[in-house]
Input
Amino acid sequence: DLIKRSQTAIYENRKIRELVLENNDLKCALAEHQEAMEFIMTKYRAQMAAFMTINKEQPEIVPDNNEKVLQKYIDGMSRLVVKSSDWIKQDEECDLQMQKEMAKLRYENKYLQRCLKIGRAAGSIDPPPDS
Output
């Protein structure tokens, strides 16, 4: 049992040393990465400062046809709204016409069923073959 404990302790010590070495390697890699990032950010900040300086020196250019383009889009949207309204109106009229037609067909169907019932009751019309 003592031998097993000593072997376990030796194994654990070896693993701890490996972890310490790996930890040191990771610390070095992290330090290098941080230095590289700091270098990149320094260059980026310098470029952005130069860009902002150049941008401030140049006057802002606004296209003179902005209002024309905007008006063109507004006109197009207005036409689209008018057409959409027309299409909605046509669709509603079509729905109303179909509802009227369905009501007419239902009425005719009920009338014909009553006529058929009367004819069968009077014996002038044979019952359907499946009854």
